[in-house]
Amino acid sequence: VQLVESGGGMVQPGGSLRLSCAASGFTFSSYDMSWVRQAPGKGPEWVGNIYTDGTRGYYADSVKGRFTISRDNANNMLYLQMDSLKPEDTALYYCVRGRNGLGIPRRYWGQGTQVTVSS
Fold first, then answer.
1. How far apart are CA 101 and CA 43, in angstroms?
2. Which DSSP letter does residue 42 get?
3. CB–CB of 24/2 below 8 Å?
4. Hey, which residues does 18 pair with through a beta bridge?
């Protein structure tokens, strides 16, 4: 299992970023997927998930209405569109194989991509 995130960076409050996750080593279309983030000095926080066919997904209250998860099963890609970013969204963002995110063993997590929201 390999999950490689990209697209992180620094953005001003109110801005947008789109994170990508390239999946390989497993049948991507057969797994629900999640995003998890971890801010400096804090524990990991589940951001949201998306079911295998991309038609259903759920989000943490902290990002609902601002973040959107999507997937491209033909190309084994997972995405996180982040809009109206806030300083408290600053974190390392991980792509995770599985619906629950936090309950998934770390070997099914990517290495993370850093998002910094600051003026």
1. 13
2. S
3. yes
4. 81
C-alpha 115/C-alpha 108 separation (Å) is: 21
CA 63 vs CA 13, 33, 94, 118: distances in Å: 14, 17, 15, 17
- Coil, helix or strand at residue 111: coil
Locate 14 and state its tokens.
Answer: 């109110």
From first to last of its 119 residues, the chain has per-residue pLDDT tens of 999 999 999 999 999 999 999 999 999 999 999 999 999 999 999 999 999 999 999 999 999 999 999 999 999 999 999 999 999 999 999 999 999 878 899 999 999 999 999 99
Determine the residue type at 6. Answer: S
Which residues, 6+ apart, have CB-to-CB distance to 63 below 8 Å?
Answer: 47, 48, 82, 89
